[in-house]
Amino acid sequence: MFGRGAADGGKAAVLDLVGQNLEGVGHMAGNVDLGITVDKRESCADQPKGRICTQSPTDGELAKGEAVEVIVSTGAPKVV
Question: 47-76 pLDDT, tens per residue?
Fold first, then answer.
């Protein structure tokens, strides 16, 4: 009655990680039993170096233990 039990169906809500520092999101995701996988690192015009540009999935739920894939910014694109 008071425990969490299986009421969540073994699922966890996907957090909005865009704009967060990569080093800090591992702990956030771990709190809801999800992992983080860095898909790649690329320049991102709207995020400074080390911050998450995009994620997949962006919302919904994942089975506990699954991972959210993220793209991490290497900084703003070089202007020629």
Answer: 999 999 999 999 999 999 999 999 999 998
Count how many residues are written for the chain.
80
- Find the angle CA(54)-CA(45)-CA(35) to the nearest 5 degrees: 20
To the question of pTM greater than 0.90 for the whole model, the response is: no
Burial (CB count <10 Å: 0-12, 13-18, 19+), residue 17: buried
The radius of gyration of the chain's CA atoms, rounded to the nearest angstrom, is 15
Residue 3 included in any domain? no
Helix/strand/coil for 8: coil
Q: How many domains does the chain have?
A: 1
